[in-house]
Amino acid sequence: MSKSQPTLADVRKWPATVSVTDAARAIGCSRSHLYERVKRGDSPVKTIAVGARSHVVITADLIRLLSGEVQEAA
Fold first, then answer.
1. Alpha helix ranges (H) inside 1-74
2. Per residue in 9-67, pLDDT tens?
3. CA angle, corner 43, sides to 25 and 18, nearest 5?
4. pTM for the whole structure
5. Fewer CB within 10 A of the end CB, N or C, for the chain?
């Protein structure tokens, strides 16, 4: 994926899950900031733990956030 900030149209073409790095780029924050929010349990997007320390972001939830829907991630 490109290093520039993706548009909502770009994100809609992404696979079902994406890296925290790609999700942070789409949101417009740093990777470390999003990981910290995941760790605290207040991430704006739903994530799935992969192994002991890694997570992936659910693309549908990222689309929900970027499109302005107000539902909070669980």
1. 8-12, 20-27, 31-40, 59-66
2. 999 999 999 999 999 999 999 999 999 999 999 999 999 999 988 999 999 999 999 99
3. 45
4. 0.86
5. C
